[in-house]
């Protein structure tokens, strides 16, 4: 009996914690993000999935809403969903948001026994080799690329070559601490974008059912995207 307990604790000590991070502008968060996050957490049996809103994006125009408002919409969206965690480290830093620094800070906080995954849609991965110190991102985490309706990776692009050189299947991903790229098509494949939601609101159209009601109520109260 004693041996059995020892074996179990030895195994659990050996097991690495798996933490995935989905960074985004979330202007606003929608069901495309939330379903993807939930399905991914379940499929890969992750210990934690963090939604990481950026403060000042470096790669696109200024968001339509304040960082605090985007953070608040995320908090409302997951208020009754304990399996999704909001990480506000980029919002707390009043500076341009670079993913490499967020991953470094996460690694320092969570320790070396945690395997990190950076989650991104294929549209976002399409510019990955132009990200700040992107090679270091691959030394800190594995990448998980989500297919997204309407988006494909261009042939012969640096990103396609990078994917070909580092692609992993699920078994290889399980063994790798960093540097592997795993592409997967999640079951739901929701064709929702924040751009579409902002456009609809601008035109005075309803966006109900594209995002959580609590987020929609907040948008209306704060008169966002009008
Ligand atoms: N419907 C979706 N399915 C899968 N991934 C998504 C979906 N929407 C966004 N993502 C991914 O989530 C991350 C954060 O996305 P972001 O906050 O920019 O949302 P978005 O809908 O793409 O916004 P925008 O239209 O303003 O660019 C990115 O990696 C993006 O590729
Ligand atoms: O660090 C970078 O250079 C970098 C360049 C482009 C995008 N990102 C991150 O990628 C995430 C998705 O961005 P977006 O535009 O799809 O919302 C978000 O967390 C951004 O901060 C990061």
Associated small molecules: adenosine-5'-triphosphate, nicotinate mononucleotide
Mean pLDDT: 92
- The gyration radius over C-alpha positions equals 18 Å
Poorly predicted ranges: 1-14
**Percent strand:** 15-25%
Do you know the CATH topology?
Answer: Rossmann fold
Query: What is the share of helical residues?
Result: 40-55%
Can you tell me the overall shape? globular
> How would you sum up the major sheet?
6 strands, parallel
Total count of domains: 1
Helix and strand content put the structural class at alpha/beta
The CATH architecture can be named as: 3-Layer(aba) Sandwich
Kindly report the name of the CATH homologous superfamily: HUPs
Q: Can you tell me the CATH class?
A: Alpha Beta
First-last Cα distance: 65 Å
- Compressed to H and E, one letter per element, the order equals HEHEHEHHEHHEHHEHH
Instruction: Say how many strands there are.
Output: 6
Order of neighbouring strands in the sheet with most strands = 3-2-1-4-5-6
- Counting DSSP H or I runs of 4 or more residues, the number of helices is 11
Catalytic activity: nicotinate beta-D-ribonucleotide + ATP + H(+) = deamido-NAD(+) + diphosphate
Pathway: Cofactor biosynthesis; NAD(+) biosynthesis; deamido-NAD(+) from nicotinate D-ribonucleotide: step 1/1
Pfam families: CTP_transf_like
Organism: Oceanospirillum multiglobuliferum
């Amino acid at each position: 009996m004693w041996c059995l307990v020892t074996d179990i604790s030895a195994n659990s000590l050996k097991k690495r914690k798996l933490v995935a991070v989905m960074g985004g502008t979330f202007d606003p968060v929608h069901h495309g993000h939330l379903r993807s996050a939930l399905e991914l957490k379940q499929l890969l049996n992750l210990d934690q999935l963090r939604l990481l809103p950026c403060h000042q994006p470096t790669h696109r125009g200024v968001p339509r809403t304040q960082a605090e408002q985007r953070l608040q919409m995320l908090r409302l969206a997951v208020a009754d969903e304990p399996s999704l965690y909001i990480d506000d480290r980029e919002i707390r830093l009043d500076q341009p948001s670079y993913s490499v620094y967020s991953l470094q800070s996460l690694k320092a906080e969570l320790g070396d026994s945690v395997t990190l995954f950076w989650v991104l849609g294929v549209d976002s991965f399409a510019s990955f080799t132009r990200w700040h110190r992107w090679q270091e991102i691959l030394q800190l985490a594995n990448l998980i690329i989500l297919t997204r309706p309407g988006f494909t990776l261009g042939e012969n692009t640096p990103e396609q070559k990078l994917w070909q050189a580092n692609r992993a299947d699920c078994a290889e991903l399980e063994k790798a601490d960093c540097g592997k790229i795993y592409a997967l098509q999640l079951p739901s494949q929701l064709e929702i974008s924040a751009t579409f939601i902002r456009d609809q609101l601008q035109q005075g159209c309803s966006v109900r059912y594209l995002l959580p009601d609590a987020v929609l109520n907040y948008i209306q109260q704060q008169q966002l995207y009008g």
